[in-house]
Write the structure tokens for this entry.
Amino acid sequence: MDRIAILGGGSWGTALALLLARKAPEQPIRLWVYEPDLAQAMRERRINHVYLPGFELPPNVAIAGDPRAAVENATLVVGAMPSAHARHVYSAALARIGLAGAGPLPAFVSATKGIEIERLARMSQVIEEVAAPRAPRVAVLSGPSFALETARGDPIAVVAASRDRDLAQSVQELFSSPVFRVYTSDDVVGVELGGSLKNIIAIAAGICVGLGFGHGTLAALVTRGAAEMTRLACALGAQPRTLAGLSGIGDLVLTATGPLSRNRSVGVELGRGRTLPEILQSMRMVAEGVGTTAAAVELARGAQVEMPITEQMYAVLYQQKSPREAIRELMLRKLKEE
């Protein structure tokens, strides 16, 4: 892990670069930034003034304007790009590394919380598909964490999951610090789905806030949202205890209640009557829950899993359904045991 590349210079990628660079000032880190103007500004000012202002990048963080240059000779590649761009970015990176080469591939850590809409693939699956026929070592990093809070050094706890136990432990050791505690897991499916599906419920939580509902409404939504997240994740191979942990209920509570949550913010504006296109047009950063909602509906139908909150969020986001009508239909569903 002596040569680290981070693909994605948004708020989370920048926060992870800060975390690693502060922990090991001698550790060289290359951070790929998509926007050329921002990359140049970060080289000159040493601050990501667009996505994470107020935090100076340590000297051991080099800014790359090309993902291929960022990953050259890297032994660890951290993915922090939006899920919609992950396949393209990983393809460019792996093309530079050379899939046909005799040397080993770097290890990969996916820190993206989303599902690819077109193929319904989790991010670890995207990496494996892009790297095929070679088999990369892949871990995922997820849990209740905001970029701003991580950058300023608030105590944070997350999970590193991999089917490769040694890799999970290596990632744990690499990222862990006095302010960033990392647990390990072998449940890649559960950790990835927990981190992705909670964004849907966070949009619904924001709608409740935007409509002026109180804490009781939010508590019920989060509880029932956790139940349907768990149903789908377990149907797709996850372990139930994972969804009850940091990358499931932990991340859900944070994203559904925290004012820094982009997905919750989308929901708040929907509840106040704004349209989705105008909300997204006003945002600089990606709200992963919008795309994940469409992917989750397809996954649920394929697995024959009931997800009423997700179905209603899909209707609000993609079929112009009134948020208030969506909540009314949820409340009037057939009565049943919990």
